[in-house]
Structures are given as C-alpha cells and as structure tokens.
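Database export, one record per block. Field names are fixed; values are copied verbatim from the stored entry.
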Amino acid sequence: MNDIKLAMLGSEGAGKTDSLYHKRLSIDGRQINLEIFDPCSQSGGSRCILEDPVNWADGFVVVYNISDRMSFLHARSIMRQIKEAREESCKGLVDVPVFLVGNKQDLCNARQVTEEEGRFMAQEDRCHFQEVSAAEDHLEISNLFMKLIRHVMENLKQRADRRRYSGSKSMAKLINNVFGKRRKSV
C-alpha cells in the first residue's frame, strides 16, 4: 500500500480544507493511504510554510481566490517558498508535483485575477493550473485531486527507479573494489 501526502496551501478564505484529512482509496488498482494537510490553517502567519510540511509532502495544491488579488500574491509567495525549500533540502527535489488552483470561479463577476495571470504563474513555475468552483462542482475537485495523485505516484515511481539504479551501480562498484574486476575464464 502506498502512502501519499499532499499539502494544501493558500490564504484563508481561498476555499481550502482545515488541518488534516485521511482517506484510504484505490486508484488504478493500487491501494493508497492519502493524507491531506493544511498547515496554513494552524499557523496564522503570512509565511505558513515551514521546512517540515514542505519536506513532508509528496505534492502540493496551492489555492488562491480569483476574487482576491492578495490571495493570488500570497500564492505566488508560497510557490517561491516551495521551490526554495526543496532546493535547500537534502533531497534537492524541485520536480515535486504542484497544482496551482484558482478557486471561486463562480464569483467571476467579482474577479480580480485573470485566468491568464494564473496560467502565466503556472508556466513560470512549471506546474499544472486549473480554475474551479469548489462550491459548485465537486466532481471537478475530485478529478483535480485524482490527477495530482497520479502525478505523485509517477513521481515517486521515478524516484524509486533512480534510487534502485544508482544503488545497483554502487553495489557493483563496491564488489569490484573488494574482489577486483571480474576476469574472463580461459
């Protein structure tokens, strides 16, 4: 069974969950233990990302309210913090899956952030972008999370494959160093 941990980040009022959510589900025939954590709902500070949640998560959903310019600017700051924290961490992984989500699409008459601005930020940070209305379309939110979970599963598989490959190369080097190079039989 795979464990997948997602962090949901953004300003208060952007339409995020609160605290910690656990769910066991099956995706593509694989059993998944899913944890979704909202560290910002507990800290109250403008810099809600600490090293622990950033290093803890396998993927991120960064949410902003399309009718609130400040939440968009906060999302930009969060995206930068994710990148910086991942570059500084011992893992050095910058390719962690991140989805930028413009929420409250149903409030388009009060829009302060254009869809193009969201797409541009997502392009800059090389992440997925989508505008949604969590209040009106639960299926769209579910599909968004399924897509992110699949990206995370693929990312984790690639990392495991890289570790396995480098581990087998290291083992071959170790054997050669201890026993010498393999000699051909005559």
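Remark 1: The mean pLDDT is 78.
Remark 2: The radius of gyration is 20 Å.
End of record.
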